[in-house]
Amino acid sequence: MASNSDSIYNVMFYIAHHPAEIAFTTPEYTNVVRMVIPDSVKVANPEIYFPDNKLLVNRFQDDFVAKNGQLLDFFFDYTEKKVPNYHEVWVTTAHLPQQRAYFLELSFE
Fold first, then answer.
1. 3-class secondary-structure state, position 19
2. What gap in Å lies between CA 105 and CA 94, rounded to an integer?
3. pLDDT at 28
4. Helix/strand/coil (H, E, C) string of 48-77?
5. Nearest alpha carbon to residue 55 among 12, 94, 8, 27
6. Residue closest to 4 by CA, chosen among 84, 70, 91
7. How far is the first Cα of the chain from the last one, in angstroms, to the nearest whole number?
């Protein structure tokens, strides 16, 4: 599954360590965080994980969520929820060529 790749993990790690470079938005849903990342950020296999003008949606595997809880909690803090009691995390990605940006959305269920 594409969402459990090292590529997505590396993008999330980059965001966590460079939050000032990222445009975070809080959508109308309290359990979701959206980000826009400059497409100048190096991404392995972007054509797979960030398709041009098309959304790619996947659920992180349970072991990925368990192993990367601290990193996921960083993103959870951008939601309107107060207690990180999620069990599933869905990731949506896309490349927006006209905006020269990658789109990343995390939904905590």
1. helix
2. 9
3. 87
4. HHCCECCCEEEECCHHHHHHCHHHHHHHHC
5. 94
6. 91
7. 18
- The whole-number pLDDT of residue 3 equals 54
**Residue 35 and residue 25 in contact, taking contact as beta carbons nearer than 8 Å:** yes
* Sign of torsion over alpha carbons 2, 31, 73, 78: positive
* Residue 84 C-alpha from the chain's centroid: 16
Amino acid identity at 2: A
Positive or negative: CA dihedral 60, 4, 73, 54: negative
| Residue (of 47, 50, 49) closest to 2 by Cα position | 49
Structure tokens at 39: 């497409």
- Which residues in the chain show pLDDT less than 50? 1
Question: CA 37 to CA 108: how far, in whole Å?
Answer: 20
Count the alpha carbons within 13 Å of 12 in the hemisphere toward its beta carbon.
27
